[in-house]
Design brief:
Length: about 150
């Protein structure tokens, strides 16, 4: 009888633990950056001319990323190159010491929303950004798992 109880208990589906900590990392031109101050503004409280909007922001000690998804409809992939401009955003490096501030506009790439719950969002992204002088920054392996801010 004890063996039967043990088998029943051990066969119960265990839930995968959800990290408590927010995650927002990206590889920018070969350098991994972790953003320590992050937030997502829930689309239910923001609208644009094309419908609901989602804003994802990562701010770190050296740089920041601001991504706006227009016409946000939940899980799915949103493209910068779409004629409707589903995604717009910016990447910037902060002025530190003798370094000048750098500002880039996202020109190509996508944001993929993998899951959304009542209070969390998970996704991936990549993009190409350019500054006004034509310099280019490439990001790959961008991931985020963040709390939704209401």
């Amino acid at each position: 009888m004890a063996l039967l109880c043990l088998l029943i208990i051990s066969s119960c589906k265990k839930e995968t633990p959800v990290p408590e900590k927010d995650i927002f990392t990206v590889n920018i031109d070969g350098n991994l950056e972790n953003f320590t101050y992050n937030f997502v503004v829930n689309s239910n409280f923001m609208t644009s001319s094309s419908g609901k909007m989602m804003r994802i922001v990562g701010d770190g000690p050296v740089s920041m990323i601001n991504i706006n998804i227009n016409d946000y409809n939940g899980v799915g992939e949103y493209f910068l190159s779409d004629n409707r401009r589903q995604v717009v955003g910016a990447y910037g490096k902060k002025a530190l010491g003798s370094q000048k501030e750098e500002n880039y506009v996202l020109i190509d790439g996508s944001v993929k929303i993998l899951s959304v719950t009542e209070d969390r969002i998970k996704g991936t992204f990549y993009f190409i950004a350019t500054d006004y002088g034509g310099a280019i920054k490439k990001t790959i392996d961008g991931i985020f798992y963040l709390r939704l801010t209401k």
